[in-house]
TrEMBL record:
Composition bias, Pro residues: 229-242
Annotated segments matching region Disordered: 120-250
Keyword Metal-binding found: no
Keywords associated with the record: Signal
Protein name (database record): TolA protein
Bias type Basic and acidic residues, positions: 126-138, 145-184, 193-217
Signal peptide: 1-30
Amino acid sequence: MTNSSLPSLLRALALAVSWALLTVAGPVAAAAAQGDAEQARAAFEAAQAARTAERARIQEERAALDARKKKEEAVCYQRFSVESCLGTVRSQVRDAEAVLRKREVELNNAERREKAALRMQSIEQKQAEQRQKIESGERPAPMRAESRSRAQPEDRAQREEEARSRAAQQRAREESHRNAEAERAATQPARSAEARARYEAKQRAARERREKRERANAEAAASGRKPAAPLPDPADPAPPSAPAGSAPAR
């Protein structure tokens, strides 16, 4: 995932969020404010269909993002600076995933607001009907039980939707944790190889310094000159530790 492609991806996601919210939230709020129950219900159902389509798009984008992440991680493993490359890719993926999560939260919030507006409109409509009956001399029927019975299915549906959303978020967190563990296990050989290469390079440099000093001393002794005072060798680097759980070298 290149640095230049990420900003354009995030901008596209942000525009999609704004468009989706305007599409699904505006008609319901307008109809509810006008007191048109039938129009508000139709607008809500249309908004629900739009939200369902938007959630499906989010899942498709998340799957595409995951596939792109795996592809670019595979490229990172072919480079010398594996960890730096992987860190850049994963940071960009986290940014894009945050945009997707924001879209989901905003869709859920809009749905809750619209359901609350519909319930309030239903209650107000019943109250208006009762007032009209009182004014015309009719005895109004009890409203509380009916309103409660109408609200219960909507409340139950909302709770079920919220439970599904929480379960999906939990599954996403667990999947992310499993992926992170798998990534750490996959990159351990690369990190060990880099550490071993650095250790061997330092060992070669120390050996070359000793050999150079020994040659200089031998040449000085052969020519009758006093050998130069030896400089202290840098501390020898410690060998890289073996990964946890690996067998000792034989």
